[in-house]
From TrEMBL:
Family, per entry: Belongs to the peptidase M28 family. M28B subfamily.
InterPro entries: PA_dom_sf (IPR046450), PA_domain (IPR003137), Peptidase_M28 (IPR007484), Peptidase_M28B (IPR039373), TFR-like_dimer_dom (IPR007365), TFR-like_dimer_dom_sf (IPR036757)
Protein's name according to its UniProt entry: N-acetylated-alpha-linked acidic dipeptidase
Source organism per UniProt: Robiginitalea myxolifaciens
Domain Transferrin receptor-like dimerisation: 585-696
UniProt KW keywords: Signal
Signal peptide location: 1-24
Segments crossing the lipid bilayer: none
Domain PA, first and last residues per copy: 153-217
SUPFAM superfamilies in the record: PA domain, Transferrin receptor-like dimerisation domain, Zn-dependent exopeptidases
Amino acid sequence: MRKYDILKNLLLLVLLLISGTKHAVHAQNYRGYSQESTENQKAVETAFLEAVDFSIFREHLKQLTLQPHVAGTPANDEVANYIAQVMEMAGMRVERYPYDIYMSTDGGNSAVELVQPLRLPLNQQEYILEEDSFSADPNLKKGWNAYSGSGDVTAQVVYANYGTKEDFEKLVAMGVDIAGKIVIARYGGNFRGYKARFAEQYGAAGLIIYTDPADSGFTRGLVYPEGVYYNESAIQRGSILTGDFTGDPLTPFEPALPLDGKKKINRMDPAEASLPRIPVLPLPYGSAKEILGRMSGQVVPSGWQGGLPFTYRLEGGDELLVRIAVDQKRDFVRVNNIIGTFRGTTHPDEWIILGCHYDAWAFGATDPNSGTAMLISLSETLGKLAKQGMAPKRSILIAHWDGEEHGVLGSSEWVEQLKEELGAKAVAYMNFDGGVSGRNVGGASSPTLKQLMTDAAKEVAYPYSEESLYDHWRGDREEPAIGNLGGGSDHIGFYMHVGVPSMSGGAGGPTLYHTNYDSFDFYKNYVDPEFQMGGTVQQWAGLMALRLANAEVIPYDVNRYASDLKGHFENAVKKVKELQPDFVEFDQVNAALIELEKNSQIFNDALTVALGSGELSGKEIRSINEQLLALEKSFIDNKGMYYGSWYRSLYASTDPFSGYASWILPGIEYELSLKSTERLEEWDQRYAAAIESLTTKVMALTDSLGE
């Protein structure tokens, strides 16, 4: 299309917008679609929404949560087989991707007890409840932390609040001796693995982690089974694996392919791996109170008092001795990702990937298998459409990851195995870990997918009101709040290692997170008794997937890069000024952002006109889409972060001190966390180079529309 044709069509578009015609509405609401394809897509979406069977979610969730299914156990293999069977019957091509991971499948032998002033073994498992038939399952285990070190220690006790970096620094500043002691810290504030890392770093001999009633317990409301909060026996299990990369601890940057496979992978010696060495165990607050209530040292500082009915103290003193013993074996364990594919009819080598892990600490009704049940239900609905002649134009992959609970293992290994293909083919990764855990809608996303999330939400009815999902989500705000992706789930490898635009969404609510009580009984009584949210989230996820799959041009919101980055750098400048008051701005970044904003708008306008004209050829569309897939890669820097080169995205990373929080502009955030400004000039250059690379790609896209 010639340059003057673009200008002529742009003028026509402006007139259409002024007149408020139907075409203008379509152009706004269906990014990446021509008028003709918009009408076709509307028909597909109507058929999809009508095809969703709301009742099937309940049946799938019930089957998935019949028994505890920790990664690497036969019970988890049964769950994998069920998932594969459902997807195959839906018409998907199903593949298994096996890996041999260095890990544990159970907590082994463990004990926690008071030794002095009296001998008192402490409870390590949830009570059997008459109201919850699942709580009596003989396969349920004690509380445990995967990757705990083994050891048997008897020592004095130190209370470390949430066990954050700042909490340990404060203990040292207050003169508390941690070396050789057993630290007791409450859950919250950071990833449990960092509690263990900091405890070990400061010389602790062992670590006990418990859930305080101030965070989930009787001080918050009624406890289970009368309510949704932790009772005195409820225990949060979880991995404590940390490192400067995500995935199998022995194979950084390489997939942990089967030991008996044809391709051999060099594995680190376990003795050289960065694995926890001190014994670590989780306890319920009913057991923790027996320790905390006997402590006699100085009173805790402001903000450290928990919800148990006594004054918290920093040290236990000479008269209080506690024993912690763990014998947890590690070995190579087979895990399996289950990947189903609906092959695209037009662009089979462009992939939309939806995922959720399926391994759980026990039954996993909310976390993760509400998301699993939703996705296998979605596979059935998409299968119905395919049989009606409405198969997706791009390939839709539905991935069920294994080993997530031990440290986001299965998905990370798959990303490492397929990183070249993902870099060339992956349009988006959409994560639904625990995606139907309540009725409160929410999401987090990379910039280019945010508009897709809100647009699709407008087309879905919220079941417990007369509102749309979008209106319920936004509440009193002008727009819904969309968060930034942090750590803790399967989007990490896609977004932070390879540079695939990613999002995480769903509905949240009450959860007995990682306890033996996260069962089908809990779900049906407290999470969503009417079982309406499974179908609702499926409709939302399906619409997003179908809009990505069927658009002629991949419907990224390219303009969002500049607007989001502008806000992020404004926040970064404020933080820098707290350390260096005379700091003005990131000069090179600011100049680069001006160009990005200008050229993104030019491209957006040109694309709208080109789609409206209907003159883009198939060859041109393929070229445009190839270029769009490269945009996010502008932020992938092979040098990576100073805290770990595996984290290669300059845009976003998991916080290396908390493990859960999102770090936007992580290079700058890390520098500030060190209370340093020495490398700010370097980061100004590196970020400006990334933005300039993105701008160059956007300009090339605009030029290709004018050819």
